Amino acid sequence: MRRLSAFLLVLALAVPLGATGEPNEQAVTPLTGPAEQRIEMLAPAGEQHVEMIGESGVQQVTPGTTSPAGRAAHGVAKVFVGIFAAVVSLGVMAASLIFV
Description:
The protein has about 100 residues and is mostly helical. It has two helices and no strands.
């Protein structure tokens, strides 16, 4: 039984190697002269313009609405999610190593 499984393993590994055949040829076409790259302007120089936003709308940053306790809870939640993700990742890795 053991010899049969070893023979089947060797046969399974040898069959794909024999089926590869000859590689396909690749044609290389050389590019000569200055025509290999061409730069074209998309728009004339005066077509694009920048408009200034009004002084009141330049940057408006609103203060955060979260209290210090809310920010602390948010930080604790981030740490908890990170640790949980690491534990799940390690658990999946261990399970895949056990079942291989």
